[in-house]
Design brief:
Length: 157
């Protein structure tokens, strides 16, 4: 498996890569995870229109699909958890915002909290990030970051 990020070429015409790269947002030259999370915000506003049950089902389906999508995109380019793969950031942010009243303030706080947990990776997120490989590994640390951020969001809002 190659570990150099410099020679990696993604193909946005490939549906799996298009999704894995957050519709291209993950190709931002700096802070792709942050740009991926920003790109998730408009989709969150659509998801927020659903009932809590439909929202939850959608996020669970996106999580399960994400294991395949992220794993396949990583395999395609030969780099585990390439920074451009941001589907996991979408899902993590959607988890963060589950059943949180929608306002610009809640979206801002949710964005900041999710990015904080995703970047700092406190235990057990760091442990999962190091020990679990493949698509599940790519997804799981962001799912946990989303859960940590969700807990704090529920306490705040």
């Amino acid at each position: 498996m190659k570990h150099s990020h410099s020679k990696v070429t993604f193909d946005l015409k490939q549906p799996i890569q298009f999704l894995a790269l957050g519709f291209g947002s993950g190709l931002a030259p700096k802070a792709p995870g942050t740009f991926g999370t920003l790109a998730a915000i408009p989709l969150f506003f659509l998801l927020a229109l659903l009932t809590p049950l439909l929202y939850l089902i959608t996020v669970v389906v996106m999580s399960i699909a994400g294991i395949y999508i992220c794993g396949k995109a990583a395999d395609d380019v030969g780099v585990h958890d390439h920074p451009a793969i941001v589907w996991d950031e979408f899902v993590g942010f959607f988890i963060t915002m589950f059943m949180v009243p929608v306002s610009w303030q809640s979206v801002l706080v949710g964005f900041l909290l999710f990015r904080l947990f995703d970047i700092l990776k406190p235990w057990p997120i760091s442990f999962i990030d190091k020990k679990v490989s493949g698509g599940l590994g790519i997804m799981f640390d962001d799912i946990l970051a989303g859960v940590f951020a969700l807990i704090i969001m529920q306490l705040i809002f």
